[in-house]
Specification:
By secondary structure, the protein is α+β, with helices and mostly antiparallel strands. The protein contains three helices and nine strands. The strands form three sheets. The chain has a four-stranded antiparallel beta sheet, with no helix packed on it. Strands 6-7-8 form a three-stranded antiparallel beta sheet. The chain has a two-stranded antiparallel sheet with strand order 1-2. The chain starts with a helix and ends with a strand.
Amino acid sequence: MMTKHEKEFSFITLNIVLLLVILFLPLSLAMAGDLPDTGQTKCYNNTIEIPCPSPGQPFYGQDAQYKRARSYTKLGQNGAVLADTAAHESGWLMTKDNVTGLVWEMKTDDSGIHDKDNTYTWANAQSMFIATLNQQNFGGYSDWRLPTVKELTFLANSSILYPGPTIDAAWFPSTQSSNYWSSTTYASSTDHAWLVHFPYGHVGNYSKTLSYYVRAVRSGQ
């Protein structure tokens, strides 16, 4: 039989464990998604490109030396899984990133709401384009949004060289080699927002009043 002191110690320990679960569960859920490979294939020293070093050599451990997966699935209406050979004409509407779980809107070349040539100011991208997708329940979903700048960079593939677009074109056709808005406001100047420049795959920030391309995303659950 446990003594009073042992019972009190057990009770305190249990409460500490429960507190830790409460504190760290949201963090573990937030980190549930993985990160795709950047596509980087080259190594550098402080000034120039070098052969990728071996363990123990200076500059070992660069991005190019760590390979991760890039994997996608074509989706149709209501998230129906399609064959890898499916075309837009056969119902391909969205592409799921199997690594991050994000589901991305397919762009088209048909003068419609998804047309690759459509551009928007940062505000209109959300109040007009995203709002229309959600009103139309595009793909069977009404939770479309602009991607954060981090999410948008997940699409950039650094193994594809300028002039790009630096993206896996087989899964994201009709992508412009240009700027795509993210939802992330530039903290130092809130009239600017971050975007991804797909000719190179790097990020930058520009005035929200300028018109650039947009690709909608929804969080895969």
